[in-house]
């Protein structure tokens, strides 16, 4: 995509266009292959290549002994060919010499068993020995290449927390204690926060505290949540240390690749987001889901939320099959373009792939790549070229923004704690409820922003709050103030029950039932009646609930729908409360998809938001700037659809005066003038 380069790009990584890139692992191939590779990269219009992601063993083959010949050569080759480098610090997986000399860096599981080298990321996030070696490597790499003109971006480690976030070793335990001391200051405060009067868990000294290692019975939930918080902060702290080392040697922007939805559950990315110069996400289509394309768009919108609406980069995705699902489904023709378009429509300004050339050896040898094992006479290579050409044609989209008037409040702390053990139902899944809300909004043709609890909600007409199990006082007040000021909210079951120390939200005397949102909702819960496995409940309006029912007691709310059967028959299932100038709806069950869509449609109508839909399997998403609007239509369905408009269709270059036809399976992007 080099045609659109401008010298005035706002950030080092950006160009005046959509960036096209990939991971490249030249250490897996002889030098002769590198030349073929780079020639083909040029042919494919590759702009940026991530290298040295797993380079540690190659560049430091023995302790303190460096060999940069290959890395120098590949950076020079890429640079000569106009390809920029997203340079890995190389620290993601330590070489065997390090874990052999220092087995204490290996991570330990909750049951005390160690994890061994032979895979990747086998290091304890708290290990000072690992940090010393990794930071030394990062600093040598940063000094060597810090002002190299090819380096457009720094890539710290890789997917921090993908495998090793939770380590329960003694070193981690000591670090956890230090973190707790800083958080609570006194052991009395910690005892209070963790509720240690329960089961004789009172601590008299910091040294008695352990990470939540495997126990005979259920553990302490507050201890677990603090360990989850600590484990996120510990890796973030590690990232900051690498960042400082790079900053000392380079002015190029620095990032690391997140995985905001699937594999990395342990990192609170709201806390990470301000620390990276560019939000970068890795996303792979999950074929285990009924509608993987909905999860993809959820992930892309959440990534944009982390980026505060700024352009972000898809740092990794696959051209076709991955190698780590039970069945590694290949992409059908057209699917690659649709998935990429969905990320673009939702704010990505860069699309990168894992990886350039499919590996011949190792655990990922059956993973797809831009250049497949079959070579250039292949479906995948033709799609690589086609995709690159499409990204070129979409260059005018770069830098534009996605506007949304509806938000989902998303919380990693509730994601972790809602699924703790000893809750009323093990079927309550935070992510599932967030997806359910998202899916209903997406079906209504509404673009969704994601915001953290406590965010400024002023710009939104409707906010959905799925299963926000724990919430602190000020964030709870923020939602109430938003509604009082004229906002609309939908809150779903198992929300607002606990404070941020997982104490149920009732006063100390037990006189008030739990619930941060009782006043806002004009309703409170007398008793939970979770459904048994696979159980359902009928509602009086014909809807079906699953997972959850409860006895709701209304104070000021009106009842919209009641449960029609089961143990809670006759009790409210959905309530609506006028609160200040706004309205808050409460949903006391997991509604079936159609009914959720109906509920969301009426909430949207009341909030004055109109969606743009061309059918359930068609995404319509708009990016815009002050002068132009870019309407993406991504047709996942088997039927042709059409969109009214006037302007230029960017994927074909066709001029449009009236109607854009979007054939089944196709993507079209209409550029319209706003003025
Ligand atoms: C990512 C990782 C890559 C590669 C890819 C395969 O998690 O960052 O190195 O393993 O998955 O899908």
- The total of helices stands at 17
Strand order of the largest sheet: 5-4-3-2-1-9-8-7-6
Distance between the termini: 29 Å
Number of strands: 27
Q: List unreliable stretches of 5+ residues.
A: 1-10
Give the C-alpha Rg.
26 Å
Structural description of this entry:
The structure is a single chain. With 675 residues, the protein is of the alpha/beta class. It folds into three domains: 19-165 and 237-399, Glycosidases (TIM Barrel, Alpha-Beta Barrel); 406-607, Rossmann fold (3-Layer(aba) Sandwich), CATH 3.40.50; 618-673, Immunoglobulin-like. Helix content is 30%, strand content 20%. The chain is built from 17 helices and 27 strands. It has a nine-stranded parallel beta sheet with strand order 5-4-3-2-1-9-8-7-6, covered by helices on one side. Strands 12-11-13-14-21-20-19 form a seven-stranded mixed beta sheet, with helices on both faces. β20 and β21 form a beta hairpin. Mean pLDDT is 96; it is low at 1-10. It binds beta-D-galactopyranose.
Observed structural traits:
675 residues; alpha/beta; TIM Barrel; Rossmann fold; Immunoglobulin-like; nine-stranded parallel β-sheet; seven-stranded mixed β-sheet; 17 helices; 30% helix; disordered N terminus; binds beta-D-galactopyranose
Topology overview:
Blueprint: E1 19-23, H1 31-44, E2 48-51, H2 56-59, H3 69-80, E3 84-88, H4 96-101, H5 128-145, E4 151-155, H6 170-184, H7 187-194, H8 221-247, E5 254-255, E6 257-258, H9 269-272, E7 280-282, H10 292-306, E8 312-316, H11 335-345, E9 348-353, H12 379-393, E10 401-402, E11 406-409, H13 412-418, H14 430-443, E12 448-451, E13 462-465, H15 473-484, E14 488-492, H16 518-521, E15 523-528, E16 536-538, E17 544-546, E18 550-554, E19 558-562, E20 572-579, E21 582-587, E22 590-591, H17 593-607, E23 618-624, E24 628-635, E25 641-649, E26 655-662, E27 667-673
Parallel strand pairs: 1-2, 1-9, 2-3, 3-4, 4-5, 6-7, 7-8, 8-9, 11-12, 11-13, 13-14, 14-21
Antiparallel strand pairs: 10-23, 15-18, 16-17, 17-22, 19-20, 20-21, 23-24, 24-27, 25-26, 25-27
The protein binds beta-D-galactopyranose.
The site of beta-D-galactopyranose has 10 residues, from loops.
